[in-house]
Amino acid sequence: MPPKRAYETIIGLEVHAEMQTASKMFCGCPVVDFTTAAPNTAVCPVCSGMPGVLPVVNEQAVEYALRVALALECTIAETSIFARKNYFYPDLPKGYQISQYEHPLAENGRLVIPSKAGGCLVRVRRVHLEEDTGKLTHRTDPETGETFSLVDLNRSGVALLEIVSEPDMRSAAEARAYGEALRRILRYLGVNSGDMQKGVMRFEANVSVRPAGSDWLGNRVEIKNLNSFRALERAIAYEAERQRAILEAGEMVEQQTVGWDEAAQQTVIQRSKEEAHDYRYFPEPDLPPLVVSPEWVERVRASLPELPQAKMRRFEREYGLPAETAALLAEEPATADYFETLAHATKAAPRTAANWLTGALFALLNAREGSAPSESLPAEAFAALLDLLDEGLINQNTAKSVLEEMLASGESALTIVERRGLRQISDEAAVAAAVEKVLAAHPAQVAQYRAGKSGLLHFLFGQVMRETRGQADPQVVRRLLNRRLHPDT
Asked: For residue 76, what are the CA distances in angstroms to 82, 165, 363, 438, 479?
């Protein structure tokens, strides 16, 4: 039986991100939390599609879009055009969506993401502004069994940014890495919360498969409305495998739009794939061209913060951190700021500060339902604890215990150490007395150790630490144990 043919997966992503503006894209309605606000309470004649109303562009939304486009190294169009994208759906009150099509705000950007080869360049085709739709909630009447849908227009008209990539990704893992990198950038720029559970960032993946080595693009399948990285990765992996099976059977993949069934872990056909002409785009007659002056662009460019990848590289270079640790610290803007404050406030080495932050503190905070470091412990207070450790006043085990109590009580490290009498015992005479007591209490283990059971050294070390309530200087304990157990060396 001949071996199966090798195939290559081609992936492009469309990312929809809601802008964190105070009001909606074309009206003055407030942007509310759609998961908690009463339905249809943030609605006006404009965003509900009443006749005779006129939209007005939200300037802050344009500025946010410029921030994203510049961060992605796009070329900004001085003049862009809003268009009507016509389709009919219950959560689209006007029967069309105001978007941008032939003349978007920005084009030809790029984003480098990590990959097995070390780095993958994903080209960004376009970044454009549009308005979000409403939200449908599907219900079933418990008495009659009839299904029905409820429409909430609170989200209708919210400023939405669409970021469209070229089909440059070759695996589900790369697509996920691209989505995660975009989310980090949007959060650093302050334009999107990145709260995936609330649907403020959604993915649509275009997936096709072709024989390895060929240069043609097969029919693509669009996977709609993926709102988690887990769903994005699994849906793409499933769809790619489904298409490979179709090609192996000698059949053609149909161009379709599918959804992702999380419970069944498979894609589900929704409809045949639309083309641009199906939406009957034409310029929005109620909005003039959007003109962005070069001066405005430069003001926005000058206001951009240090972006995640640049911050990660600086952490490696400036603080001597391993790439993995630098990436973890640069993941969230607040965590990166906290680390820098901590590193400058403590006498301990930056690498030590980073290890304690990403190790002991992160572990304790995760156990406390993932609260942020800055919300739980001031960086200066944490620095004071690391200073006690660096000066040899406490050891590592004591420091972990004190850190836990600091989170619980809010007391300073020094207060806890003094109140509980936790200062490290470095006096050789005091430690030697503890060593002698332990060796006298465990003659069998001492004999076995001297007979070759070297692992018992850890047991004896632990007994000395217990005898000193964990306060003995570990280096002094090891030195004195070795001296007593190996008197001839």
From this structure: 15, 16, 43, 74, 66
Burial grade of 302 (CB within 10 A; 0-12, 13-18, 19 or more): exposed
Residue holding tokens 């003094």?
A: 418
Residue whose pair of structure tokens reads 């660096």 in the numeric block: 390
User: What Cα–Cα distance (Å) separates residue 68 from each residue in 105, 118, 165, 425?
Assistant: 11, 24, 14, 55
Indicate the pTM of the whole model: 0.85
pLDDT digits (tens, 9 = 90+) for 3-42: 567 899 999 999 999 999 999 999 999 999 988 999 999 9
Q: Convert the pLDDT of each residue in 351-406 to its tens digit.
A: 999 999 999 999 999 887 767 888 889 999 999 999 999 988 888 888 999 999 99
- Residues 463, 404, 360, CA angle at the centre, nearest 5°? 80
Alpha carbons within 13 angstroms on the beta-carbon side of residue 379 total 19
Domains of the chain: 7-299 (no CATH), 306-420 (no CATH), 428-485 (1.10.10.410)
- How far apart (Å, rounded) are the C-alpha atoms in residues 191 and 413? 37
Res 461 pLDDT > 90: no
Instruction: Report the alpha-carbon distance of residue 356 to residue 143 in Å, rounded.
Output: 57
Structure-token match 């409820």, residue found:
150
Residues 381-391 pLDDT 10s = 999 999 999 98
